[in-house]
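Figure 2 data, in text form.
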Amino acid sequence: MKALVLAGGAGSRLRPITHTSAKQLVPVANKPVLFYGLEAIRDAGVREVGIVVGDTAAEIEQAVGDGSAFGLQVTYLPQDAPRGLAHAVLIAREYLGDDDFVMYLGDNFVVGGIDGLVDRFRAERPQAQIMLTRVSDPSAFGVAELDSEGRVVGLEEKPEHPKSDLALVGVYLFSSAVHEAVARLKPSWRGELEITDAIQWLLDHGHRVESTVISGYWKDTGNVTDMLEVNRLVLESVEPSVRGEVDAASELIGRVVVEAGATVTGSRIVGPVIVGAGSRVRDSYLGPFTSIDRDCAVVDSEIEYSIVLRGASIVGVGRIECSLIGREAEVTPAPRVPKAHRLVLGDHSKVQIGT
């Protein structure tokens, strides 16, 4: 079995962060989302991985390399533009050959890995196996319809009037039968080759499609709210570790990680929190579910339930919460007189200002 990991999307819902960075490399708990997926694939016993890349190919390749750091053999598959999940299968045809494969969306996060899903596929040998979860707004996802016995009878991509609340999670398993289905597809109303249409083709032509409704945790980390929630979830499982320097005037409470080279002085940190290598926290408060990436500075400030990316600086700010702060960003207080906010914002930025 091989794996096909999709890492070519534009990440429009995470702009402006993704104007300068691949969405799959935005970190949660100081590790890129993509890495969690690669580790899940490895842990399921799959070693050969094809990564579909687009405009951010160079950044993805620099981060992942040849895959040896993950115990994988990685091949990069260029895609000229995001043209749908099934298009990724189409361009990977030669790489995949006639092997079974797991398709994993690189910006998705599945708690507990995919071992059980892969084992079931290998044992039962359907032509396709999908993961489903109940969502509050199914019109934003691919949606599956099940009959009274739980069999998949239909699928639609982002339907206006969903027939169920069961959304497809971004992990799929296929036999080589899917290649014929993909080859026969025409672009949908969105102008894309939809994987839901390919699975529907398999159903229509008598192939067996199995599903698993998961009750565990899954997130598409395509927006800030979901990124913060995944960050919270991952931080829940961290073990306290102090390899950096913490002075006697500081207080660490609960699960706090201070990585090597980081310094904490005169500060209070209430975990779960991670402070990355080379970062400095001085005269500040870090509240629960906060990740500070490497080489950041937090001085005379308060921050909680947030993600701060590499090299960012937060100085003299009363309180920040529920925020995603980009690489090398600078956050400082405005002058007291005149009382005004001074902003330099990238395209698609969102700012909430207290009065």
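Caption note: The CA atoms of residues 241 and 273 lie 10 Å apart.
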